[in-house]
Amino acid sequence: MAQHIGIVACSAEGAALCYRTICIEGAKVMGAHDHPEVSMHTHSLAEYKQHYPQGDWEGVARLMLSSAEKLARAGADFLICPDNTIHAAFDQVAAKSPLPWLHIAEEVAKEAQRHGYKRLGVLGTYSLTGTHVYPEKLVELGIACEFLDEAGRREIEHIIMDELVYGQLPPASLLYFQDAIDEFKQRGCDAVVLGCTEIPLLVQAGDSALPTLDSTRLLARAALKRACGVG
To answer: Rounded to two decimals, what is the model's pTM?
Structure first.
C-alpha cells in the first residue's frame, strides 16, 4: 500500500502544480487513475511574507511546523514543501518535525548529478537567491551554481510575486526569463534550475537555451517514488 504524502504548501499555483503532478503521474506507477493518498495544508502566502523577506526564518519554521503537525494528524507518512524559498528554514523544521521530509534542492541536485551537470544557473525569488538553499545542496555533489546580479534578482522577484503566483503569464516576462537563461549559458552554465515552483508554468523546456531542472515536478516525482517504494 502506498504511503500518504503530506504537502506543506506556501503559494497556491506552485502547490497546485506539485499536487497535479503526483496525481497525474501516479498512474504511470500504480495504474490508471490511481495515485497515493495526498493531503495538503497551507498558511497564506501573506503570513509567510510577514517573515521571510526580513530573514525571520524562525517565523517561517513555525508556520511550516504548524502545517506539518496538522498533516501528521491527518495521517501523512512523510512531507514535502513545493516552495523553494522557505526551505531556508528547513533545518529548523526538520529538527522538530513529527514526520520526515524530502528536500526540494536535494532532489534537484540529485537530478543534476544524474545528468552530469557541473554548473547550474539558479532562478528564484530574491530571498531564495540570497540563501544557502541551493549552494549547500549542490556543493555536496561537486556542482557549482550561478545567480543573477542584484537588478536581475529583483526583476525575477517582481515577476514571480506580482504575476506568477496569481497565475499571470505575460509574454514579456517569458522573454525576460529567456534573456536570463541566455546570460547563464554565456557564463558557462550547462543547465538552469527553475527554482521557484511557479516558474515552470511560464518557462517550458522548449523555451530555454539550457536544459531545465523543474524543481516542482522533480520534488513531486521523488515523493511519488518514495510513496510507492520505487527506485
So the answer is: 0.96
